[in-house]
Amino acid sequence: MVSQFELQVPIYNAAGCKCTTKEDLNNIASSSAGAIQTKSCTLAKRSGNQPPKYWDNGTISINSNGLENEGYQFYLDYANEYSQSINASNQKPIILSVAGLSLDDNTKIITDTLKNNSIYALELNLSCPNIGGIPVSSDVEVFNEYLNNIISATSYNHSAKPIGLKLPVYTTRWHFEKVSHLVNKYDISFITCSNSMPNCLQFEHINNPGEDIMTSKPVILNKLGGGGGGEFMKGIVLGQIYQFRNQLSENVKIVMCGGIRYGMDCYEGQLAGANYFQVGTQYMVEGTSCFDRI
């Protein structure tokens, strides 16, 4: 049985936001966030999609990052360095977000991470909306086989580390029932609801000086891969949490991710059944002060 997921301070950063570089991670370490979550990492370093790939207007965001990250070994090394440089009583738990591009990649990353004493937990991200193809977690049969293969190839189900799943937005009760069954079946420690909303598009409009012409263009280059986040996601995410809470084992913790701007948003998340809270768009807009304020 894997360990339960427990944090003393329940609010921390979402994996896609200002957590890629050593400077990013140190900023979170110096903040009042309850944990340091890394960028979703791949086996090797990735530059992601071509810019522009992020936009926000202060309340909503569109991103097509494409899993830009430094490679998983960078984050394991950072965790080791952090744990050696900070007094144990002041250390924040480090959560490695894992998003390998294949089953073999994820197996390698998970195997190595389970051996690393400086990583507290893993969040397996099988729901990235902007790297092409159908996310593994969107097809329940594929999802089941994928998790079974990972467990067979690693010591995942005997881990002392909490292991969670970052899930996509589901739209049918059938999905909630089937995915809840998998989470309970494989003894998952926590789920994160939810990844950004796929297939979003936003335009910016520019008035040309001295001309009666307005230029309009998409805010990100990858028009077919925009993931939406921010304020509009809250109602969607609350619904995801409520559906899952009514079907999951009470040992499975739920992390709310989407639409959190104020403390009241977290309170509503608790009412729906959430235990912990990740801040994404608001962290991008406000910086680390958001954790203390919320």
What would you say this structure looks like, in words?
The chain is an alpha/beta fold and 294 residues long. It has helices at residues 22-29, 72-85, 103-114, 140-153, 173-185, 234-245, 263-272, 281-286, 289-293; strands spanning 11-13, 36-37, 54-56, 60-63, 94-98, 121-125, 163-167, 190-193, 203-207, 214-218, 227-230, 253-257, 276-279. An eight-stranded parallel sheet has the order 1-13-12-8-7-6-5-2. α3 (103-114) packs across α4 (140-153) and α6 runs parallel beside α7. The model has no long low-confidence stretch (mean pLDDT 94).
Beta-strand segment tally: 13
**Radius of gyration of CA atoms, rounded to a whole number:** 19 Å
Low-pLDDT stretches are none
Question: Into which percent range does the helicity of residues fall?
Answer: 25-40%
Q: Tell me about the largest β-sheet.
A: 8 strands, parallel
Topology readout:
Blueprint: E1 11-13, H1 22-29, E2 36-37, E3 54-56, E4 60-63, H2 72-85, E5 94-98, H3 103-114, E6 121-125, H4 140-153, E7 163-167, H5 173-185, E8 190-193, E9 203-207, E10 214-218, E11 227-230, H6 234-245, E12 253-257, H7 263-272, E13 276-279, H8 281-286, H9 289-293
Parallel strand pairs: 1-13, 2-5, 5-6, 6-7, 7-8, 8-12, 12-13
Antiparallel strand pairs: 3-4, 4-11, 9-10
Helix pairs in contact: 3-4, 6-7
